[in-house]
Amino acid sequence: MTEPAPVLASGVDNERLNAQLRFLLEADKLKRVLRQNLLVDGSRRENSAEHSWHLALSARTFAEYAPEGTDIDRVTEMLVIHDIVEIDAGDTFLFDQVDAETQDERERERAAADRLFPLLPEDQAAHARELWNEFEARRTPEARFARAVDRLAPILANWHNEGGAWVRFGVTRAQVTEKVKLIAEGSEALGAYAGALIDDADRRGYFRGA
Fold this sequence. Notes:
By secondary structure, the protein is mainly alpha-helical. α7 runs parallel beside α10. The chain has one domain (46-203): Orthogonal Bundle (Hypothetical protein af1432). The longest helix has 20 residues, at 141-160. It has a two-stranded antiparallel ribbon. A hairpin with a 6-residue loop joins β1 and β2 (45-47). It starts with 13 loop residues before the first helix and ends in a 7-residue tail after the last helix. The chain has helices at 14-27, 48-61, 72-81, 86-89, 103-116, 122-137, 141-160, 164-168, 173-186, 188-203, and strands at residues 34-38, 45-47.
């Protein structure tokens, strides 16, 4: 791991600052992780850091479609934290032939969380792990809305790329429809919009026949 430069700052806890820098330098590696989805303009594959930033921006933009009382600040924190584990675990394509939520995949992601979050000072490490666990469990309105935004993003990208990864990997309408259920759990409005996009994508022939 790249070490942060020595710090000698007056009135600053240098050990804490160096821990924060170590985490941020390690998090920079998320820029190397390529996803299967293309950018909306179709020019190249997006990386996971770009994906996380865009999700955080989406959550703030779509805040009015979250359940009443949802803490959007917490949602955006989750969205910039939850993909950090892909530095070690890699990105799993949602429609891979192997179940994307296998026990092996979950174990790899937990192991990554165990390594990465403790790079932070203890209090920040505990907070980051709490957010990551909350996102995974989907038991709070914030986690469900965060997951809804996360799941909507590739649907938007694929629709704007004339089917994109759906066409490349022979994805069926039924497969995509199954994933939309999670969007509706977090936001009725976004779930309805995702359903309309799928209807339109079907009319355009973006899905493999059943």
